[in-house]
Structures are given as C-alpha cells and as structure tokens.
Specification:
Strand order of the largest sheet: 4-6-5
Region (Disordered): 256-275
Domain IGFBP N-terminal: 24-105
Radius of gyration: 19 Å
Keywords: Disulfide bond, Growth factor binding, Growth regulation, Secreted, Signal
Largest sheet: 3 strands, antiparallel
Strand content: 5-15%
Oligomer: single chain
Subcellular location: Secreted
GO molecular function: insulin-like growth factor I binding; insulin-like growth factor II binding
Number of helices: 8
C-alpha cells in the first residue's frame, strides 16, 4: 500500500482534523532483501508494478484508470488515485468495500511528487476529489456516514408498525455493523503535525462486506511490517472462519468451499425463508 495508498488509498485523508487540509503521510518501514526474497513470483503481465497494499513488500499489478479500488485492493497506477464516487453518501464505507475507482490525481495544493514518495517509502491514501479548497474532508466523510446511519434508524422507527420487509436491512447486517464501528473508531483518531502512527491505522480490523451487507468469503488483515496480511475464508452470514480454512499469507482459495453444503453461502431470500 505504498505506491492500496502511489497508494492511492487516501484513507488517511478521511482521518484528518479539520485544520489539516493536506493528506496525512505515513512512512512504512524499508523492505529488507529477506522480505522481498520471500515474495511469490509475479506471473501476470502488468502495465505497471507497485508494492502490495499496506506496508507489504511484494510486487503486484497496479490498477488502471477506471478500475475498482479500495482498502484491500492493489494501488492505482502512477498519476492515479483511488477515489470514492462523487455522489457517494458514505465515501469511507465505499473505499473499505473496494468500490472506489482509479481516477486522475487531483491536487488541492502542491505536494511531494509520487515518485519521491515511492522512493522514500511514504504512504498516502485515497481521498475525495476536493469540491472546494476549504472543504474539510474529514467532516464531509464522517458526517455523511453518520447521517446515513441516522436516516436509516429513523426510517426503521417509522416502519416498526408496518409489515416486516421480506429482505434483511443491509445496515443491520453483522458485517455492516462491524464496519460501522471501525469507521467510527477512525473518525476519532487524532494526528499531530499531520503525521500519524501507521501501525495504529492498519491494526484496525476492516471487515470485507459485499453490496448486500454480507461478509465476502475472503477476509484479510492489512499488510504490516513488510509482511503480507493473512487471509482466510468465512461464513458469509456470521463472518466466522470456516473450520477447514487456514489463515495463509496469500489466496486461501475460498471458491473451493462454494460447492460444499456446509460452507455454501446462503442467499438472502433463503435466509429469510428460514425465519
């Protein structure tokens, strides 16, 4: 996540206090030769090769213009950055779910070049394209997130006397509730002199939710200390690790469990029918 933040994951931008309009810069530890030697061989043909998300040291293919991106995805290519969609009510939530999009970088004010950051090991993140120079990114992102939650709560209260909706509310799913707690924790983080602890940010456990609010079968920790984060397979409803799935620093191949009755992810309609 130095070039999932050329990185283009400006998750850091969402954490900025209102007085700090620039992006927070995190510095990853240097990659040792031993760490790099342990990386799996890159077999794909890449337009551009970047470091993996977080503070990992292994090479991955950069995401290109228009491709989806987010906290858990490879970084965007040179000159690009991962942005939430302009009309997003919950930009933080969108980036965590990998629903951002690689777009041309937009600078609010002069900053150090991406090339220099890449060489120095500095990590920036994914930020909202500035609407106004004075706009506080943190307030916009967190306010929208909180307002969306409050709106959902009001709607649910008003509909308590109505017949139950046949579809589970995404905002009440276990994965979405877990994600909301993490985003709330991020909004409370404080950074001094525009710098922050990278480890504090990446030690947070981001649940990987799908568009329906269920857990994606593949869950991963962020890469830290130059090591790739561990990945494992979970039950889409509960988020609990599957008994036969091991945590690995790579692809746990969760698709192999789709054919099994024990681990086949139930559909929302099927879950509702059982209630």
């Amino acid at each position: 996540m130095v070039s999932y933040f050329h990185c283009h994951l400006l998750l850091a931008s969402f954490v900025l206090p209102c007085t700090l309009l620039g992006e927070v810069i995190f510095r990853c530890p240097s990659c040792t030769a031993e760490r790099q030697a342990a990386c799996p061989k890159l077999t794909a043909t890449c337009v551009e090769i970047v470091r993996e998300p977080g503070c990992g040291c292994c090479p991955v293919c950069a995401r290109q213009l228009g491709e989806l991106c987010g906290v858990y995805t490879p970084r965007c290519a040179s000159g690009l950055r991962c942005y939430p969609t302009p009309d997003s009510d919950m930009p933080l939530d969108q980036l965590v779910k990998g629903l951002g999009q690689c777009g041309h970088k937009v600078d609010v004010e002069p900053t150090v070049s991406l090339e220099n950051r890449e060489q120095s090991g500095e990590v920036s993140g994914t930020k909202v394209p500035p609407q106004r120079k004075q706009t506080c990114i943190l307030n916009v992102a967190v306010h929208r997130h909180n307002q969306n939650i409050k709106k959902t709560m009001r709607t649910n209260w008003l509909e308590e006397t109505r017949p139950a909706h046949p579809w589970p509310d995404q905002s009440h799913s276990r994965c979405q509730q877990e994600l909301n707690k993490v985003l709330e924790e991020i909004s409370k983080m404080t950074f001094i002199n525009n710098k922050g602890s990278l480890e504090n940010l990446y030690e947070l456990k981001f649940p990987n939710c799908d568009k329906e609010g269920l857990y994606n079968m593949k869950q991963c920790h962020m890469s830290t200390h130059g090591q790739r984060g561990e990945c494992w397979c979970v039950d889409p409803i509960t988020g609990v690790q599957l008994p036969s799935s091991l945590k690995v620093r790579g692809d746990p191949s969760c698709s192999q469990y789709l054919s099994g009755q024990e681990t086949k992810p139930p559909t929302i309609s099927a879950t509702t029918a059982q209630k």
